Amino acid sequence: MSENFIVLCQPDAGKSCGACCGLYNYVDSSRSSLEQRLRSRTKRFREMVKNPADVECYASQTLATEDFAKRYEVIYCCEYLGFLDGQEKKVGCLLHPQQNSGIDLRTCSFYGQEICAGHICPSHHFIPQNQSQILIKIIDDWYLYGLCLTDIDLVKTYFRLIADRIGEELKPELFNNESLKNIAMEYFNWKITWPFRSPETNRLGKYYFDGSQYMISYIDYAKFDKELSVLDPIFLSLSSSFQNAAEIEAAESLVWSNIDSFIYVYRSHR
Ligand code: SF4
Ligand code: SF4
Known about the structure:
Blueprint: H1 31-48, H2 55-65, E1 81-83, E2 91-93, H3 113-118, H4 123-126, H5 129-138, H6 142-149, H7 152-166, H8 178-193, E3 203-204, E4 207-209, E5 214-216, H9 232-237, H10 245-268
Antiparallel strand pairs: 1-2, 3-4, 4-5
Helix pairs in contact: 1-2, 7-10, 8-10
One iron/sulfur cluster is lined by residues 8-9, 17-20, 119-121, 123, 146, 149-150.
């Protein structure tokens, strides 16, 4: 690993990611449901686990109390994911040594200590560092951060469309400008609020699940007499499902307006 390599999991005090611990793999992965789940786990863990021998008891109570119905059976939903801080800004591993006076309890986990401590997801390799640093700079919300950070197409396609039009890569410092930050946040918030989002609960971005398998979704543009949209990777990342050509056009218009606004503000501040 090069010395410039930046681990994205716990970037600062304002947010963190828990996606690879199964955070978004519950059938109900809404913010309110996850918040409730993580809150009660954290409380239980703090009350019950006073030494390593108590972990087993915590796990059996958690597994007995919660609904662990998954979107995708292959991804484990770890019972040790909780909140790391009193303000509930950071999700993370309750077994981590920093949570347990230096004692690493991850030996008790489903994956084992070595995998838990060493896992680095593909976003670290496929999202350019300037782009991941922009996400860290503008998003201060664990729920949204993990959803966006692990959606490589969502991030890369947006920043590439802008970079192609302004003729240079975006730098994180640019987002000291509040207007540019707000425009980018409008886009990333669509991961939660997108009006053309499929109502199906077995969708997560471009993936859909039938329990034991995952498949990549697609949009049938020909059905609506439309060409493949340049924005197709973004639409899939936003779990889009369109009913007619007018909806596709409205979706395109939303994204292009966002990009146009970004470029307008960018140019007017140069
Ligand atoms: S999904 Fe990636 S960024 Fe998120 S916690 Fe796992 S390794 Fe870290
Ligand atoms: S034990 Fe491993 S999988 Fe579970 S929360 Fe900790 S790091 Fe994630």
